Structures are given as C-alpha cells and as structure tokens.
From TrEMBL:
The protein's name: Uncharacterized protein
Gene3D superfamilies: alpha/beta hydrolase (3.40.50.1820)
Taxonomic source organism: Zooxanthella nutricula
Phylogenetic lineage: Eukaryota, Sar, Alveolata, Dinophyceae, Peridiniales
Length: 106
C-alpha cells in the first residue's frame, strides 16, 4: 500500500461499522475505491460516561450541568490514554510505510 487512513468511529460505535452496508467509501470495492489505500479501523475503549452509560468512546463527554471551572482528573487521564493508544497506531503505520509519516492520515 502507498497510504494509510486511520478512521475513528462515532460515539457508541465500533471500528468495523464502516465495513458494512452499501455506502461508498474509498476503502470499499467499487467506483470510489482508492487503490493503494490501507484503512485502519480501531475501536475505542469502553468508557463510563458521566450519565452512567458505558460505551466505546474516544473521550469522556461532559455533563451539561457540570461546573466549568476545570477538568476532572479522570477526564484528563482518559484523554491521555486515548492519545497514547492512537500514537502507537500511528507509529505502527508510519513504520509500515518505511518511515514516511506524510502518507498516514488520521
């Protein structure tokens, strides 16, 4: 492959949701297919949100009634964990492309 796209899913979804259905994406076979494109679909870790639901999420959402004075420690830690995980995925893909980070897209 010549390029890598790391595609992040929406809240409460999983990475493979974008492989299903008849939607035309550059990574699906057909007229919109992009030859030479490797696409990576990571699934976010499960996170308990402030309102109690636990679901795949790249970050913790904020409660609408929350004091705006500052971020909670768990919010910062969750975001740090996500950043580290994504950095690892990016580094792996850059390595696959011989160190050419300009061909990796997030």
């Amino acid at each position: 492959h010549r390029f890598t796209l790391i595609y992040l899913h929406a809240f409460e979804q999983k990475g493979d949701v974008y492989l299903e259905g008849d939607t035309c994406y550059p990574w699906t076979k057909g007229g919109d297919c992009a030859p030479g494109l490797r696409t990576v679909f990571p699934t976010a870790d499960l996170m308990q949100q402030p309102w109690g639901d636990t679901a795949p999420s790249w970050y913790m959402y904020e409660r609408p009634d929350r004091n705006k004075a500052g971020n909670r420690r768990e919010d910062r830690q969750a975001l740090k964990s996500t950043r580290q995980r994504l950095a690892g995925i990016i580094e792996e893909e850059v390595e696959r492309l011989g160190g050419d980070g300009e061909r990796v897209f997030l």
